[in-house]
UniProtKB/TrEMBL annotation:
<dbReference type="Pfam" id="PF14306">
    <property type="entry name" value="PUA_2"/>
</dbReference>
<dbReference type="GO" id="GO:0004781">
    <property type="term" value="F:sulfate adenylyltransferase (ATP) activity"/>
</dbReference>
<feature type="domain" description="APS kinase">
    <location>
        <begin position="229"/>
        <end position="382"/>
    </location>
</feature>
<feature type="domain" description="ATP-sulfurylase PUA-like">
    <location>
        <begin position="7"/>
        <end position="83"/>
    </location>
</feature>
<dbReference type="GO" id="GO:0019379">
    <property type="term" value="P:sulfate assimilation, phosphoadenylyl sulfate reduction by phosphoadenylyl-sulfate reductase (thioredoxin)"/>
</dbReference>
<dbReference type="InterPro" id="IPR059117">
    <property type="entry name" value="APS_kinase_dom"/>
</dbReference>
<dbReference type="GO" id="GO:0004020">
    <property type="term" value="F:adenylylsulfate kinase activity"/>
</dbReference>
<keyword id="KW-0067">ATP-binding</keyword>
<dbReference type="InterPro" id="IPR002891">
    <property type="entry name" value="APS"/>
</dbReference>
<dbReference type="InterPro" id="IPR050512">
    <property type="entry name" value="Sulf_AdTrans/APS_kinase"/>
</dbReference>
<dbReference type="InterPro" id="IPR025980">
    <property type="entry name" value="ATP-Sase_PUA-like_dom"/>
</dbReference>
<dbReference type="InterPro" id="IPR027417">
    <property type="entry name" value="P-loop_NTPase"/>
</dbReference>
<dbReference type="Pfam" id="PF01583">
    <property type="entry name" value="APS_kinase"/>
</dbReference>
<dbReference type="GO" id="GO:0010134">
    <property type="term" value="P:sulfate assimilation via adenylyl sulfate reduction"/>
</dbReference>
<comment type="function">
    <text>Catalyzes the synthesis of activated sulfate.</text>
</comment>
<dbReference type="GO" id="GO:0005737">
    <property type="term" value="C:cytoplasm"/>
</dbReference>
<keyword id="KW-0547">Nucleotide-binding</keyword>
């Protein structure tokens, strides 16, 4: 079996394989996870601050060997499954199958063993960075390195969207530090609790040979004004609710204003092109929505405004799309076109409900398959008694009040 882990899991996998998560040799099982949560140690008492976990599909069972792939399909590791939980978590040791080459600045990556070999007998001052080093931090690093007669090892924690900028900041800082300073990107995903994140950074610094560890200052994030940020406007609703027509009207209104770059991803058009060949099973419908979300997030990543209008019946998949957008620094606006089923069926312009009632279309949303109404919608519109123009005006009003359109 082959499986591509999520981004955070891939980052943890790379650190497991490199030895940066020493003494861990694989993803944690139930006993270790319980001990980490309760005592901040592994089950055998070894200090370890945070869970390191992996989700696998249902078919993976204890005793199976699963090949873990990078996003380009390159085998990274073999996982021998030793435990499988009801929540999808799988535990077991990992064995490397090849070097991690995905992501930027791959040429700068070194394992802890390689860095310790470069250091020789000299001590290391390891500096972990999630943002640039300001002037006081540079002064402290320089003075401490001189006091210890240590080699400065900058570890830019290059996880996710901010990763490349952190590496560039480390390379810039290197020019202000001793000539033998090393820069080694480490894809360490941040943990939610600052104290645990710092403790994990200490562990990684130790693995890289730190005689002393300094944590660089946390970056100050000042988002740009809304009208310059990327935005995904995501319409969801039953077939015939009017969402596609409202989305087209919004696209036209925004193009007339001319103040935003607009990408329109209509559900039917995506089905015919981007998702051609997919069925209407739950798995394929989820995949269709993820593809829409990925393209929308890529458009928003660069400051664009993406409009999506699929049915998107499942709350979990809509949440994934929201996460895709927010993970690239974009905003997300969920619009629930809440026209009742009876009205949608009365319209039935394409004859789909009639076919579904006759059993000709299996798994049809609202008839033979559920529609999970969102409880996190930013705007709710019922088109039963209002015109499309009025509905478009409501959405445009929300964009103006949120500052996304001027």
């Amino acid at each position: 079996m082959e499986w591509t882990p999520e981004a955070r899991e891939l980052a943890d996998l790379e650190l497991l394989l490199s030895g940066a998560f020493e003494p861990l040799t694989g993803f944690l099982g139930h006993d270790d996870l319980h001990a980490v949560h309760e005592r901040g140690t592994l089950a055998d008492g070894t200090p370890w601050p945070v869970p390191v976990t992996l989700h696998l599909p249902e078919e993976a069972a204890p005793g199976d060997e699963v090949t873990l792939l990078d996003p380009e399909g390159v085998p990274l590791a073999a996982l021998t499954v030793t435990e499988r939980g009801h929540d999808g978590l799988a535990a077991g040791p990992v064995r490397g199958l090849g070097a991690a080459e995905h992501g930027p600045f791959a040429r700068l990556r070194r394992t802890p063993a390689e860095v310790r070999a470069l250091l020789g007998d000299r001590p290391a001052l390891v500096v972990t960075m999630r943002g640039p080093l300001d002037e006081p931090a540079l002064t402290e690093v320089t003075a401490t390195a001189k006091e210890l007669d240590a080699v400065v090892v900058l570890l830019p924690l290059s996880y996710g969207e901010p990763g490349p900028a952190v590496v560039r900041a480390a390379l810039k800082a290197k020019d202000r530090l001793p000539e033998d300073t090393l820069v080694v990107p480490v894809p360490l995903a941040p943990r939610e609790e600052p104290e645990l994140d710092l403790e994990l950074r200490e562990h990684v610094a130790t693995a890289y040979g730190a005689a002393e560890h300094l944590a660089g200052p946390e970056p100050v994030s000042i988002p740009g004004p809304p009208h310059r940020r990327g935005l995904v406007v995501f319409f969801t609703g039953l077939s015939g609710s009017g969402k596609s027509t409202i989305a087209r009207g919004l696209r036209d209104a925004l193009l007339e204003l001319g103040s935003r770059t607009v990408t329109h991803l209509d559900g039917d058009v995506v089905r015919a092109l981007l998702s051609k060949g997919l069925t209407f099973s739950k798995a394929d419908r989820d995949l269709n929505i993820r593809r829409i979300g990925f393209v929308a997030a890529e458009a928003a990543r660069h400051g664009g405004l993406a409009i999506c209008a699929p049915i998107a019946p499942y709350a979990a998949t809509r949440a994934e799309v929201r996460e895709m957008a927010e993970s690239v620094g974009a905003d997300f606006l969920l619009v629930h076109v809440a026209t009742p089923l009876e009205e949608c069926e009365r319209r039935d312009r394409k004859g789909l409900y009639a076919k579904a009632r006759a059993g000709l279309i299996p798994e049809f949303t609202g008839v033979s398959d559920p529609y999970e109404e969102p409880d996190d919608a930013d705007l709710v519109i019922d088109t039963t008694h209002i015109s499309i123009e009025a509905a478009v005006s409501q959405v445009l009003g929300a964009l103006r009040s949120g500052g996304w359109v001027r």
